[in-house]
Design goal:
Chain lengths: 247, 265
């Protein structure tokens, strides 16, 4: 058992033990599936887009992964406030491995939420191609790692939860809404297309949708490369900032 | 092996314009029980955080076991264990899991880890509660667990920042005996801060008293009592700092401050 494994295990144990959080964070994706999915479904169909749930479900799955991942990263602030962060920071282990361990843990949790939402979507009529399910899991994992690392990077610069609403409203929400999760990117105004092209989640949603059998906007290869690049970048940034934490 | 396991030179820490630690210099000998005393806000915790690589000094030098605490933080972390003043347990894990987490991070071999966790949990009388979540524990139980955890990997230096606050007298005795026993048998250096003067008097080989970030007096408890011409360390402390332990109000003590200057080296 190494430090990375024990950090990973800790994140998982905390997830499994807080059922309320697990159930609570399913609320938002459920609302999106029901309200947006069934609300806009008929219009989407009339406009010739086909079955909206097929289109929306990958976006909502990505959303569940995004929110859980950012949240898992932000948890560093809690650890700081409850004091446990000190215990990990004085350990004779490189802070890089501490950060990687907890990011892997957070990402695993985020993937679990994604898989649960995928199952729920299927109950609501989502019919993915199961052939590329492994590829879909790869995309979920990349999204999860990327945003847990981003959350960790942010949290290592903050002392308390005061700025949490700021992060939710000015970072996480825009990331989601400007990603093409709820509307197709082809045909949107050029300005919106440019914004989306700088949004890592746009590639995550696109890749996930393609893996589930939908049509890709950027192409799956591009999605993988861009997402992989962003993921590596935020892991680097996150672990660098994490290693600089002072208490 | 060098005789000084901790060497501190001109250690200073500023928070903005406020100087919390102001030019501290002292050495701790290998195997010593070293008491770090001072009233609230004296800068004890801030100093310990710098010694344990959690905080960067504004200036000055810290050498722990021959290594620089700023440049070789990773290596320095190999040589100590610490019990923080503030809580540092994971409330969502059980007592056993908290111990195991620590053991794995500090690379204690599995067999030793298992045996030692049991021994320590029995010592602090929490063995029968080992599978309870820490959030269900009382303050004293959490404190005991933190102390046990700090000892788990048998570090070369054990930092204890007010370890026995909130513990009843028997438990305090019991834990100190265990620590002093380790100090004897394993030659573990113990660096502790406390507000209990009789505790410091009893266990410390040497004490350093600081106030407002500066050293006021250094020496063995006996020599300090002799210098201050008092019977107890508590009285010596009051005489030297110019005020009581939790008396932050500094008014009307200018006369005492004059006296304090005489004791400064
Ligand atoms: N992060 C910080 N930012 C600003 N000031 C700080 C910070 N940490 C400590 N201080 C200040 O530094 C001074 C020394 O604090 P420290 O915690 O080291 O005292 P202490 O000797 O441990 O006291 P106590 O006996 O109450 O634990 C205090 O005046 C405190 O307000
Ligand atoms: Mg303190």
């Amino acid at each position: 058992m190494g430090p990375i494994y024990i950090m990973w295990l800790r994140q998982l144990k905390r997830y499994v033990r807080s059922r309320a959080r697990m159930v609570g964070s399913l609320g938002q994706p459920l609302i999106f599936l029901l309200a947006i999915g069934f609300g806009f479904g008929p219009i989407y169909q009339k406009a010739g887009g086909g079955d909206y749930i097929q289109f929306l479900a990958p976006g909502v799955i990505a959303m569940a992964v995004l929110f859980t991942a950012v949240f898992a990263g932000i948890e560093v602030i809690w650890d700081r406030q409850f004091g446990f962060l000190k215990e990990t920071l004085v350990a004779p282990v490189s802070r890089f491995s501490i950060m990687i361990g907890r990011t892997l843990g957070g990402a695993t949790v985020a993937m679990c939420q994604g898989v649960i939402v995928m199952v729920i979507s299927v109950c609501f009529g989502f019919r993915p191609h199961w052939g590329a399910i492994l590829l879909a899991l790869v995309f979920m994992f990349l999204i999860a790692m990327l945003f847990t690392a981003l959350g960790t990077a942010l949290a290592s610069q903050l002392n308390d939860m005061q700025s949490f609403p700021l992060i939710m409203n000015f970072l996480v929400m825009p990331l989601f809404f400007f990603s093409g999760a709820i509307f197709p990117l082809n045909g949107v105004s050029p300005a919106l297309a440019v914004v989306a092209s700088f949004n890592p989640l746009a590639y995550g949603v696109d890749g996930l949708r393609a893996a589930f059998g939908g049509t890709a906007f950027y192409g799956m290869g591009t999605d993988l490369i861009v997402l992989g690049f962003f993921c590596a970048f935020f892991l680097g940034l996150g672990s660098w900032l994490f290693s600089k934490i002072q208490i | 092996m060098k005789n000084n396991i901790i060497e501190v030179k001109n250690l200073t820490k500023k928070f903005g314009s406020f100087t919390a630690v102001n030019g501290l210099s002292f050495n701790t000998q290998r195997g010593q029980v070293f008491g770090f005393l001072g009233p609230n806000g004296a800068g004890k915790t801030t100093s310990i955080k710098m010694l344990t690589t959690l905080l960067q000094p504004t200036s000055g030098q810290i050498t722990v076991d021959g290594k620089d605490a700023v440049k070789n933080a990773r290596e320095v972390r190999e040589s100590f264990g610490i019990v923080f003043q503030d809580p540092s347990l994971d409330d969502e894990l059980t007592a056993y899991e908290n111990m195991e987490f620590h053991g794995v991070l500090y690379k204690v071999p599995p067999a030793v880890r298992k045996a030692r966790i049991e021994e320590l949990l029995r010592m602090i009388e929490l063995w029968d509660r080992k599978d309870d979540l820490v959030k269900q524990f009382s303050g004293g139980m959490k404190r005991r667990l933190e102390i046990a955890r700090g000892i788990l990997h048998h570090p070369q230096i054990l930092f204890l920042d007010e370890p026995t606050v909130g513990l009843d007298p028997q438990t305090r005795n019991h834990i100190w005996n265990y620590i002093l026993d380790l100090n004897q048998k394993e030659k573990i250096t113990v660096f502790f801060s406390t507000h209990y003067m009789e505790e410091a008097d009893r266990v410390a080989d040497e004490v350093t008293i600081i106030d407002r970030g500066k050293i006021i007096a250094q020496g063995t408890p006996a020599s300090l009592k002799k210098k201050a011409r008092t019977k107890t360390l508590e009285e010596a402390f009051i005489k030297l700092t110019g005020h009581g332990l939790r008396d932050e109000d500094a008014s009307g003590i200018e006369g005492m401050r004059m006296m304090k200057k005489m004791w400064r080296r």
